[in-house]
Model the fold of this input.
Amino acid sequence: MELGLIGLGRMGGNMRERIRRAGHTVLGYDRNAGLADVHSLKDLVDALAAPRVVWLMVPAGEATRSTIAELAGLLSPGDVVVDGGNSRWTDDETHAAMLAERGIGFVDCGVSGGVWGLENGYALMYGGEAAHVARVQPVFDALKPPGEFGAVHAGRVGAGHFAKMVHNGIEYAMMQAFAEGWELLEAAGPVTDVREVFRSWQQGTVIRSWLLDLAVRALEEDEHLTALRGYAQDSGEGRWTVEAAIEHAVPLPAITASLFARFSSRQDDSPQMKMIAALRNQFGGHAVTSAAPESGGAGSGS
Done:
């Protein structure tokens, strides 16, 4: 099939390549002209044969809202827009209603896979009407990992991003648990090789996982994570998960605590947050903050 893809950054560029490898035609647009196949959104829409499918991989919030608003004036009835970014699920309902007024379909899709998705495939959680989902299905099939699992039609519009939000909340708590265990091992006297303890857990234990594999990879690159500052950002989805839990009166102590732990990392150079930062960099290519150089004495900057 033919697809228009908007946003060719760390995720979008690799997704374009994976879809092309599956034999589909992808025309990409990005504000960075060096990455784009066309010069504007209008050029992208004009180059696609109707009925069109256009997939967004742009930052959540205003960037997504403005792009969808512009597409609403360019696309035709029968076209479908897919929001594959990390939008808040409540925005999906607004976007779907706006596009529906013009006869344009809308599908929201939570995407997980980070920088490894090109080779391993992307986990996909999508929401929307069955007919709209069916239009995009060949692309979902191209992006998902091989095998039976890895993609799900989660429900109505908003369900895909809601499922991805909860996924990321769980991810927060899992990373926090690994980080706390790592700090305790580093602090205790009896254990002399923390990295090898983590490596030993990769086989036969109940906590073996891809996150554990990535933790070992990070420790191979920097055994005590001394090059990192203990500072970890949050992408917003952890906050949204906690807000949804409050709205529905669902207790989320582990996820909530992991979110507040990230907040604490912005006040001190937290050893745990070095591991969180390292894991985020390993699976998603997220930026890390380098450790500050040791003071050179009086007169050095703050």
Observations:
- The first strand starts at residue 2 and ends at 6.
